[in-house]
């Protein structure tokens, strides 16, 4: 059976590291397809890596192997690990990068990968992927792990009250869109159809777009006339996004971060109107 192997790294795109890793995989695993999830994770940013993998892995078939090489130094405190969760295999080091993935999931099995030869992380990750592709069970690949290291990520912090939700900006994408940790489910459960105000620094948003370009256009107007409008929308992950229409991360027009002086992990607050009975 051909295996899908995905790669998420902080290697960047200018150096030889990605090519070398792919070469090692193809040299050891002939019947596989390598898919790049991202090599643009900010250096050592385990939280961003975990978010990207969590947002992506479920689009692949069960049995896929996901290598996560972000801040992936093998040490006594951060051994190489292979985790089976939701029918997928995740290979990385036990450095907390899987915290986002395991927020609301229980893993099926986890092992610290045998490393008697003292392999470097990428070599050991590839060797583990090879063993999985050969059908070897996890108990033959390493020693069972009872609990995984978890990080106290800032993005975990979500405060829910009867009339208020307070969350955080947890990820900025390539367009400058700021993704929050507030889900549609939480918004609808607390809001119950009530009117609301989304507070973003000194700005207020009182409507959530159905899609990014959900604007009423008048005669002789185009979407370009709405460029620069601040908006809120739920993305394909059903997470609330704050953005500026035609936002640009680096360039003319700017982004919410640059124009509104927002930073990652800043607070975002939603107040629901208390209806008089």
From TrEMBL:
The positions making up the signal sequence are none
What positions does the domain S-adenosyl-l-methionine hydroxide adenosyltransferase C-terminal occupy? 167-245
Domain S-adenosyl-l-methionine hydroxide adenosyltransferase N-terminal, by residue range, is 5-142
Tell me yes or no: is S-adenosyl-L-methionine among this UniProt entry's keywords: yes
Q: Which domain of life is it from?
A: Bacteria
List the keywords (alphabetical). S-adenosyl-L-methionine
Cite the Pfam families for this sequence.
SAM_HAT_C (PF20257), SAM_HAT_N (PF01887)
Q: Which family does it belong to?
A: Belongs to the SAM hydrolase / SAM-dependent halogenase family.
PANTHER family associated with the record: CHLORINASE MJ1651
**Protein name stated in the entry:** SAM-dependent chlorinase/fluorinase
Query: Which species does the entry assign this protein to?
Result: Myroides pelagicus
Q: What is the lineage of its organism?
A: Bacteria, Pseudomonadati, Bacteroidota, Flavobacteriia, Flavobacteriales
């Amino acid at each position: 059976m051909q295996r899908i192997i995905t790669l998420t790294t902080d290697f960047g795109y200018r150096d030889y590291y990605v090519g070398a890793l792919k070469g090692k995989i193809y040299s050891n695993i002939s019947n596989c397809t390598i898919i790049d999830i991202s090599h643009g994770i900010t250096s050592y940013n385990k939280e961003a890596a975990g978010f990207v993998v969590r947002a992506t892995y479920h689009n692949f078939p069960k049995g896929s192997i996901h290598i996560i090489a972000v801040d992936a130094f093998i040490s006594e405190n951060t051994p190489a690990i292979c985790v089976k969760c939701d029918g997928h295999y995740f290979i990385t080091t036990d450095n907390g990068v899987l915290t986002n993935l395991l927020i609301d999931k229980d893993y099926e099995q986890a092992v610290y990968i045998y490393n008697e030869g003292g392999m470097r992380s990428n070599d050991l990750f590839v060797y583990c992927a090879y063993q999985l592709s050969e059908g070897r069970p996890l108990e033959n690949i390493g020693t069972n792990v009872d609990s995984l290291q978890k990080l106290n990520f800032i993005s975990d912090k979500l405060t829910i009250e009867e009339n208020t939700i307070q969350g955080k900006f947890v990820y900025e994408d390539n367009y400058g869109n700021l993704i929050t940790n507030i889900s549609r489910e939480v918004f609808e459960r607390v809001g119950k159809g009530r009117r609301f105000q989304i507070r973003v620094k000194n700005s207020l948003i009182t409507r959530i777009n159905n899609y990014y370009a959900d604007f009423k256009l008048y005669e002789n107007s185009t979407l370009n006339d709405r460029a620069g409008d601040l908006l809120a929308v739920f993305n394909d992950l059903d997470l609330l996004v704050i953005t500026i229409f035609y936002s640009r991360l680096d360039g003319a027009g700017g982004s919410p971060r640059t124009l509104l002086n927002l930073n990652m992990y800043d607070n975002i607050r939603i107040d629901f109107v208390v209806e008089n009975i």
